Amino acid sequence: MKLRPIPIALTVVISAAVLFGGWFVYRQTTMQGPLQKIVQNYKGVNNAQFDITRNQINLKLDLKPDTNLSGLVNQITTKGKSVVGNRKLKFDFVDHSSEKLNRFWNSAMFSVAEAMDNKKYTEIPAKLEQLAKDSGIKTQTEMDTDNVYISLSDGDSSKFIVLPRNPAKIGVWE
Prior knowledge:
By secondary structure, the chain is an alpha+beta fold.
């Protein structure tokens, strides 16, 4: 029996195209498409990109300064529950911050870290408001069972921070 290379090569190429094309269509229609629709329809979202893996969903978000970050996360986890499932959400924000917001966050970081370490989450909004007084910076702090969400804005500049309430253990505590 003589093997013919052209039909074998065509069979391999067509099989690979069907297999990987089917996987691509499946991901687009059942995973990324619904999440994209949920996020793009949320007020304040300019753009969103997703990378969905087995254990995690990486979101790269371009948000307007007045966006309610915890509301967006809540909407993703409730309306997109079939896609999110047990996956962890990891956020990456397009940087729209200014030097003023970066300096403010650098000065506020110690107070926020102290409150997070002591699990005194109610101190965070008060400390941020106290530090922002007379600076023109608007702060918004919200919390859910997993994260603390901090939004800082100054006109067209904005900075979004997501802090996990249960930080990963390090060193000898692992």
